[in-house]
Amino acid sequence: MHKSLKQAFLLIIGTFLTLFLATFITVRTALSGHTPPVDSNYYEKGLNYDQTVATQREMLSQGYDFEADWFQKQSSLQLGKQNITVRFHKNAEPVSGAELQLKLERSATDSFNQIVALNEISKGTYGGEINVPFAGSWRIVLSAKSKDGNLEKTRQIRIEP
Known about the structure:
Distance between the termini: 55 Å
């Protein structure tokens, strides 16, 4: 085989190896990090932005809030099915008769998103069952509709394997 033919062959092999290496690094980088999901109802919120912000501020100023260890400390959620509870209160007094909803969202896909209606277990305590299919970063949105308005809080949580 001629020397120039060997050099051309080595150049072609080197080019393909570089291409495979670049593809591997790109895929690894894309899978290791991700962007959190965009709010699923961003358009409606955008149309009513001022009203939504005013309602949130009003609810918070009146003393409405959620209380749940798994939501504040982000420590007790695990893989698989589990029952969760949330306390909804106004100035430390339990709020009864509200409609609470939990959204569990995974970035980059809607395949694993869940919307769970939380039922009132006792006065001001609401519960439901969620299923976390795998570890990683999840977004949880708690929302409540009461006679005084709507309250929504969002947390980015990390589920460990």
